Amino acid sequence: MEPASPYRPKVSRETRLLLTAAVLAVAVLWLLAQIRFDGVPVPTSPIPAVLSQLASSPRFDDLAGQLSQIQSRLQPSLLLVGASPAVEPRRVAIKLRDDLVVTWVPPGGHPALWTDAPIVAHDVASGMAVARVADAASLPQPLPWTPSRLQQPRYFFATNTAGAGVALRPVFVGSLQPIDTPLWPEPLWTVPARTDLAPGAFVFSTDAELAGLVIALERGLAIVPGASLLTEADRLIKTPPGSGGSIGISVQALTAPIASITGAQSGVVVTAVDGDGPMVRQARAGDVVEAIDGEAVPTLQHWNARMARVPPGATLVLRLRRAGELRDVTVVAAPPPDAPATRQLGLGLRGRARVGAEVIRIAPGSAGDRAGLAVGDVITLVADLPAPSAAQVMRAFAAAAEGRHVLIAVTRGTDHFVTTLAR
Amino acid sequence: MSSSTGGDSFDLVDLTPDLPVDDLRAPADGMGRGPQGWRHFWGWSGKSAPVAMLLIAGVGLGPLGINLFSPAMPLLDPVVPVALAALGVLVGLGLGNRRMDERRLFSAAWLQALVTMLIVSGGIAMVIPRVLSPDVRLFWTVIVVCGICAATSLTLPTGDPLEPRTPAARVMELGVLLPIVAGGLALAWLRAGSPIGAVTLVAQAAGITLMLAAAGWLLLTATSSETEERVFAVSALPLVGGVADALSLSAPFVGLIAGVFWRIAGRHPRESIRRDVLFVQHPLLVLVLLLAGARADLSLQALVLGAGYFVLRIAAQLASGMVARRVAGANVPSDLGQHLLPPGVFGVAFALNAVSVIGADASIAYAAVVVGTIGSELVAVALRPRRLAG
């Protein structure tokens, strides 16, 4: 047997190759570790970062991570529109198409004051409004969310106005229940009581899809589904509902005692008839309106929704029940009472000594209304006159030239702001 | 190059010289003289593809190059699950072909794939915190996809169960099984977000696939001509791939289920499907590789991650080759790791499938796999096994 060659290597070729590859791999990885990337924190040792990913993290961490991602994805598609923040809170809007955005105007809102986003169409009954925003064409439009199971508890991300921008915050929603309302053709989703949502907020799924718009109903909050919202907004532009017509009666909900006396099963009860209105000789207090144009009016909400969409000159057929007897009454809706000219102040004021003038009445469409004043506000300064009396406010407004503005300072509760009355 | 599944004439388990082994026809020096040798050097044969060349060509045809592919890419996307399902079907059909020392080779192949996956996943986990922003889902997606893609070296399983295979080639064939199963479960888990959801998803997919496979089998048993057989067999592929695509699951995994069913169901349909799937598989894979190259978004992060993937895969395949050889015994060549260096098609195709299933989280891993695959292919040319290199 020949002795082993002194030059024969003690390790095999494969082992040498493996060791070389391992050393090279470590060297290359070390070199790669020297490269720095923007936005990626450089860990002194990668081990803790790896371990933190391997360990099960609390759900709140996941939620915060999702929120951070969704915020960056949705931020470009959310914008604030509305009047001056001093007049009323600005509203969140999302892109509908081209340069149009969809938003919600609460009852008593002043869409006429929106200077940065003029209203193109507004459904007074539902509050939905479409406004034109010059730079909306570049905004991405959120995709509507389609739920698999409505009743399943879940997190949503709701919009929140924060200063000059829009923020998102997570909201836990225990379940969603479909509900039919006269305001929307598709069912809405009611949310459980005490859910931390506010009317006018848009809500998004954890995949950044548009879940819907939060609105207030008589029985609580509801979400208008995203797909339904976008469809209705499109329809609103094409066929805007009429508004402004009046038939000159006031009504209230039908209660059981009144129903038992009148013999009506459902409807609304007439409480007053306008002496100058179109129904002055056709209806009286105590009548029950059971249907309009053949459609039942089961609740006060149905009545309000129908009346808010009546244009002046429209012919309506009301089914009235009086003393158990039914009869149909045809009525033509009258135009709304003449609004005071915008150059009128339109304020009922009461003097408050050494404080100013308190607003006790506001005529719709007047300069006071357009300035965003509310009943209970106290005008503490007009022009350069502090603590003005009611007469001084009126004189100062009357003295201003047409087209000019009169500066006023207003106290509303504990808040103070300055605005102008347009002459 | 690439997965030359019939690569060396050394240590043939079942030496049958008359049976065709494509790679044996090439000159032994690998450098080649004439077109046949040149093609052999670049791995162009009936059972393998020049992966790196096709990927680079795809990059050149894509948005990073002359942008020729971009308009057609959405139309070509459905090809990916079909090609991957075909790969799974072939692996499933090949299961149970008894060969000498099969059990030991099977264990060695699984161990080799497992070791590679662990090394690459572990190494990539160390690289991620320096390259990507911290995100749990992204973290798991990248390490799972990289680990699974690195573990295979296979381009095409054998079409003929009686064809002589080297033990190294058999290790490659058997070693693809674990990544397919692991990939199927991992993608289901990443998509469903919970283990229970993943199991439910896999059960749904298995049920639908088995129904489809049974329907295909019934049709194939009732055929009266070879043309009919071919039509039914080839039609079954888009259905199986479509199930995976519709359920957003791993296409090779779904194909594997169908393949195993047809393997068990009976010989006649099995042979028809094997023949016809192989007939369309090679062009499909070429298209997948071109598409893969075109879709890779080669950012700086992807290049760094891809470089890490590449060095880790080389070291992992050499190490796992040594471990597997100890299990398989003296039958396998001592340089088994070098046989396993070519990346094959499965890895990059699986990464492409992961992008369509998981979404954007997998795109960085996918680009890294493309970079690493090209690098691995070039290293495999330089470090050819001794018998192949001459």
What keyword list fits this structure?
heterodimer; A: 423 residues; alpha+beta; Thrombin, subunit H; Pdz3 Domain; 3 domains; seven-stranded antiparallel sheet; 8 helices; 34% strand; B: mainly alpha; 0% strand; globular
What is the secondary structure topology, with strand pairs?
The complex is a heterodimer of chains A (423) and B (390).
Chain A: H1 13-33, H2 46-54, H3 59-74, E1 78-81, E2 91-97, E3 100-104, E4 119-122, E5 128-132, E6 154-162, E7 165-173, E8 177-181, E9 184-190, E10 202-204, E11 210-217, E12 220-225, H4 226-238, E13 249-253, H5 256-262, E14 268-273, E15 288-292, E16 295-296, H6 300-308, E17 315-322, E18 325-332, E19 347-352, E20 356-362, H7 367-370, E21 378-382, E22 385-386, H8 390-399, E23 405-412, E24 415-422
Chain B: H1 35-41, H2 51-61, H3 73-76, H4 79-94, H5 102-131, H6 136-150, H7 167-175, H8 177-192, H9 195-221, H10 226-246, H11 251-265, H12 267-295, H13 300-328, H14 336-339, H15 346-358, H16 363-382, H17 386-389
Helix pairs in contact in B: 2-12, 2-16, 4-10, 4-11, 4-12, 4-15, 5-6, 5-7, 5-13, 6-8, 6-15, 6-16, 8-9, 8-11, 8-15, 9-10, 9-11, 10-11, 10-12, 11-12, 13-16, 15-16
The total strand number of chain A stands at 24
Number of strands of chain B: 0
Q: How far is it from the N-terminal to the C-terminal residue of chain A, by CA?
A: 120 Å
Shape category of chain B: globular
Question: Would you give an account of this structure?
Answer:
The complex is a heterodimer of chains A (423) and B (390). Chain A is an alpha+beta fold and 423 residues long. Helix content of chain A is 21%, strand content 34%. Chain A has 8 helices and 24 strands. Chain A has helices at residues 13-33, 46-54, 59-74, 226-238, 256-262, 300-308, 367-370, 390-399, and strands at residues 78-81, 91-97, 100-104, 119-122, 128-132, 154-162, 165-173, 177-181, 184-190, 202-204, 210-217, 220-225, 249-253, 268-273, 288-292, 295-296, 315-322, 325-332, 347-352, 356-362, 378-382, 385-386, 405-412, 415-422. In chain A, strand 8 and strand 9 form a beta hairpin. Chain A is extended. Chain B is mainly α and 390 residues long. Chain B has one domain (52-389): Na+/H+ antiporter like fold (Up-down Bundle). Helix content of chain B is 69%, strand content 0%. Chain B has 17 helices and no strands. Chain B has helices spanning 35-41, 51-61, 73-76, 79-94, 102-131, 136-150, 167-175, 177-192, 195-221, 226-246, 251-265, 267-295, 300-328, 336-339, 346-358, 363-382, 386-389. The radius of gyration of chain B is 20 Å and the shape is globular. The A-B interface holds A 12-15, 17-18, 21-22, 24-25, 28-29, 32-33, 35, 37, 39-40, 42-43, 46-47, 49-50, 52-53, 57, 62, 65 and B 123, 125-136, 139-140, 300-301, 304, 307-308, 311-312, 314-315, 318-319, 321-322, 334-335, 337-338, 383.
